[in-house]
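User: Hi! I have a protein structure encoded as tokens and I'd like to know what sequence might fold into it. I'm fairly new to this, so please keep things simple.
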């Protein structure tokens, strides 16, 4: 309290009051004031006499107490010092290691003497666990038994005794030394003689007398200094002036219309003026009570007792809104605590409420910008609009769109088309509601607020639906259910984007809430405007996606061709977003062979789908030439290179012509021959095919990878494998085995596991593979082909070697006729005889080397003549005067198809004849 009042308290309590300037005093005036300070009637004189009496009494009492207690104090002092030094030395670092060293005395003697001298003790002795001294102030005592009661210390119990010693009567403290296992390994004895301590106490008597005398001198000088300081701190005010100043201070403090609270450093209330008591509804006489015990609001009490600076913090206290400022008083050496001022700001509550409403609306708009339009789906976007507005803005939200919008079309006039309910959401999810369900198609009557809003393009507000006759005319039975349910008001806002009216969104409120206000209509417009853009984006995407999917499906095979070499099943799954360029094909080839093709164009969209169609058409054209797989891939590679050259960034159409980017694709082409059971394959950057043998073992064929189509410059290689009857060849695109959350190696192992089950049909294989590997949200197209190999048995194949002699033709014809008779194809015998005669005769006349004839009975009768020549015959029309040149013309007329395919050692001329 002396420190509190000794500071310039008046200056702190009355800010802005400047100290009066000091005036120079004349010497006689200064002397007169000095004599007045020493007068007993003055405050300074009274303080001086009081100090004099106190000093004398304290001096006498101290002298008497010192004499009477010298013995007692000496003993206590000796005990305390001895115990402290002994315990400190016994627990000092390195003491145990020193005891176990080879020469403990050499290590411990200097330390013990240093401690003894610094502590003022007479001896510090270290002993072994047998009581043998290792240190001593007198070196001749080292190595002898310790004099005193050391046995308890060696058993682990410290002792303090007073008794005779080698240096006289002393206070002796013995403390055990423990190692890390709490085993006594020695002891430390420390002590001081009673005589020495008593001498110290006796020598303090002259000092005490001198201190008392000095205190008297200081009291005299201090009285003068205190008096001078008091006058300086009171700004030279006398007691009357100070009394009047504090009366004014009290009047101002308790009459001002601002609450003032002073809280001490201990959290107790020091002062509260009348306004603070009124604003906070304080109990009577609150001073001295803890702030937490005054019954304040918890958040108000926390601010007052927080000990932190607060500036214009607005808090609610009861039914009042208070602006609180809090400042600490312990700055620059002031007393601990804080001063708080309170202002009644209840009138700001309404403004604060409006600001809070505005903030919530901004938060709603922000959430709408994030949560609406997360997908490019019209129905999902409408549902997101309904969900984001429910509860925070409306109790129910319904979204109605023009019927063509859901299909991606653009409505020409919303008022003249049917509306479709796309979304309904309310504060009671999962319960019945009185509105049209999702999917309901209806027409708007002209008197409904929705029709007015669509025709005028402006929102329409219905404060009381019970009086909205135009709205009730829409569907009297349904609107009656809505009113009975408790729906009170409506705001309907048209959904307009890019000048197109898409539909309308309806915000409904129950009768428990206030009707919509004008300010809220603008918020509804903002929500509808953002949602309309998102819905329109989804509509346009739906239209483009539908077009792309339609194009893609039109370019893919719709049915498999008839053939007997393979039992084939396929699956094609488009990606969830975008249209890819995956394709597949099953192409019958001459000689009962079948080609399997699967490919993938890089990218998505119409460009990828169109490129896929061009590649598929090219594959069909190249296949008619009966080229091997590697040559077909080379031709496809050249085709894509030309596409890039013509349509890429540097194409002939100039800058911007290649906006779709460089084209790339992968492809796998396989040809299976059911006669030889051999499958010839080549791939260009495509995943390897899977071979499932009849026993269920799965192998990914190690084909030369080859570069993707479009890179150019590198050749493609062909691999050939012999397949057992009943084997399954599985071709696929990378969308099946690769995903954002799955590595391609993992996908291959999953495919291996899904295929390793024998005895399944190709259709079952496709179904189970997709169930095992299909991602939840496919990001790429998936094409899958499963083909089970069939074999043309020896009973349906006949072959003969023909010598290069025209006379041998007759014998071959006879063998052919016999075989056709065995097969029951007598009706086709004449045509087959004619065709084979022409083909064999041409081979004998124009080819070299061995000639071989083969008949194959399949869906058609296939006649093949092979030779070692690479020269292909050409069909021509013979003139009237020509003697020859009509053989191939006759073959072409009688055969369903005919052609030439080249082999590694020559060529094969074939012709297919219809079987009756």
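Assistant: Happy to help. Inverse folding works backwards from shape to sequence: for each of the 916 positions I chose a residue that suits the local structure. Here it is:
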């Amino acid at each position: 309290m002396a420190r509190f009042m000794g500071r310039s308290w008046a200056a702190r309590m009355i800010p802005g009051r400047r100290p009066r300037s000091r005036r120079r005093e004349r010497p006689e005036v200064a002397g007169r004031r000095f004599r007045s300070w020493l007068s007993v009637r003055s405050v300074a004189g009274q303080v001086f006499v009081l100090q004099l009496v106190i000093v004398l009494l304290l001096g006498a009492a101290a002298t008497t107490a010192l004499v009477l207690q010298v013995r007692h104090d000496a003993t206590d002092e000796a005990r305390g010092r001895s115990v402290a030094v002994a315990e400190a030395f016994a627990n000092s670092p390195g003491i145990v290691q020193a005891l176990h060293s080879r020469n403990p005395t050499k290590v411990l003697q200097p330390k013990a003497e240093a401690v003894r001298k610094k502590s003022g003790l007479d001896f510090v002795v270290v002993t072994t666990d047998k009581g043998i001294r290792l240190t001593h102030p007198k070196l001749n005592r080292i190595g002898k038994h310790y004099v005193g009661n050391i046995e308890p210390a060696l058993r682990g119990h410290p002792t303090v005794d007073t008794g005779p010693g080698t240096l006289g009567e002393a206070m002796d403290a013995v403390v055990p030394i423990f190692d890390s296992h709490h085993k006594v390994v020695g002891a430390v004895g420390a002590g001081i003689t009673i005589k020495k301590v008593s001498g110290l106490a006796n020598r303090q008597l002259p000092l005490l007398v001198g201190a008392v005398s000095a205190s008297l001198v200081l009291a005299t000088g201090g009285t003068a200094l205190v008096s001078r300081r008091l006058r300086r701190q009171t700004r030279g005010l006398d007691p009357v002036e100070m009394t009047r100043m504090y009366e004014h201070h009290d009047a101002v403090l308790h009459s001002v219309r601002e609450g003032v609270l002073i809280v001490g450093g201990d959290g107790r209330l020091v002062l509260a003026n009348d306004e603070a008591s009124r604003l906070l509804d304080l109990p009577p006489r609150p001073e001295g009570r803890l702030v937490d015990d005054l019954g304040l609001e918890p958040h108000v009490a926390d601010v007052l007792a927080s000990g932190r600076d607060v500036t214009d913090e607005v808090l609610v206290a009861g039914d009042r809104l208070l602006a609180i400022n809090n400042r600490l008083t312990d700055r620059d050496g002031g007393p601990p605590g804080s001063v708080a001022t309170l202002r009644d700001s209840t009138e700001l509550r309404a403004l604060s409420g409006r600001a809070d409403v505005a903030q919530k609306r901004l938060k709603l708009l922000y959430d709408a910008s994030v949560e609406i339009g997360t997908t490019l789906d019209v129905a999902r976007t409408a549902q997101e609009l309904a969900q984001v507005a429910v509860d925070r803005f409306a109790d129910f939200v319904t979204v109605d769109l023009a019927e063509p919008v859901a299909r991606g079309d653009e409505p020409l006039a919303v008022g003249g088309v049917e509306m479709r309910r796309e979304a309904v959401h309310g504060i009671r999810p999962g319960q019945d509601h009185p509105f049209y369900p999702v999917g309901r198609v209806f027409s708007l009557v002209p008197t409904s607020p929705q029709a007015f809003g669509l025709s005028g393009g402006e929102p329409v507000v219905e404060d009381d639906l019970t009086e909205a006759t135009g709205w009730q005319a829409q569907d009297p039975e349904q609107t009656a259910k809505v009113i009975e349910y408790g729906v009170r008001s409506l705001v309907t806002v048209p959904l307009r984007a890019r000048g197109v009216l898409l539909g309308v969104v309806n915000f409904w409120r129950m009768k428990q809430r206030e009707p919509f206000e004008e300010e809220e209509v603008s918020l509804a417009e903002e929500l509808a405007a953002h949602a309309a853009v998102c819905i329109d984006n989804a509509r346009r995407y739906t239209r483009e996606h539908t077009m792309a999917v339609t194009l893609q499906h039109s370019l893919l095979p719709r049915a498999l061709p008839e053939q007997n070499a393979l039992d084939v099943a396929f699956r094609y799954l488009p990606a969830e977003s975008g249209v890819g360029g995956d394709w597949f094909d099953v192409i019958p080839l001459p000689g009962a062979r079948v080609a399997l093709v699967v490919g993938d164009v890089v990218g998505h969209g119409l460009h990828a789908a169109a490129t896929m169609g061009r590649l598929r058409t090219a594959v069909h054209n190249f296949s008619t030439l009966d080229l091997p797989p590697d040559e077909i891939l080379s031709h496809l590679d050249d085709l894509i290179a030309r596409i890039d050259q013509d349509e890429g960034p540097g194409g002939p159409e100039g800058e911007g012509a290649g906006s779709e980017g460089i084209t790339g694709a992968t492809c796998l082409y396989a040809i299976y021959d059911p006669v030889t059971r051999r499958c010839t394959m080549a791939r260009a950057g495509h995943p390897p095919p899977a071979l499932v043998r009849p026993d269920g073992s799965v192998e990914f064929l190690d084909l030369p990878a080859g570069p993707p189509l479009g890179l150019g410059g590198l050749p493609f290689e062909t691999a050939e494998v012999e397949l057992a009857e009943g084997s399954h060849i599985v071709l696929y695109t990378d969308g099946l085995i690769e995903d954002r959350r799955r590595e391609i190696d993992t996908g291959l192992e999953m495919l291996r596991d899904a295929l390793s089950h024998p005895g399944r049909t190709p259709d079952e294989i496709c179904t189970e593979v997709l169930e095992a590997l299909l991602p939840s949200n496919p990001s790429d197209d998936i094409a899958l082909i499963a083909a089970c190999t069939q074999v043309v048995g020896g009973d349906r194949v006949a072959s003969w070697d023909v010598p290069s002699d025209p006379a041998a033709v007759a014998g071959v014809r006879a063998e052919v006729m016999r075989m056709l008779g065995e097969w029951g194809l007598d009706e086709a015998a004449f045509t087959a005889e004619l065709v084979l005669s022409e083909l064999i005769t041409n081979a004998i006349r124009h080819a070299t080397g061995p000639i071989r004839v083969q008949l194959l009975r399949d869906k058609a009768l296939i006649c093949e003549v092979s030779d070692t020549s690479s020269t292909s015959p050409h069909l021509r029309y013979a003139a009237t005067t020509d003697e020859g040149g009509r053989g191939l013309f006759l073959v072409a007329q009688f055969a369903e198809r005919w052609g030439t395919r080249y082999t590694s050692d020559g060529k094969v001329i074939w012709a297919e004849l219809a079987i009756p």
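A useful reference point when you look it over: The mean pLDDT is 80. Feel free to ask if any position seems puzzling.
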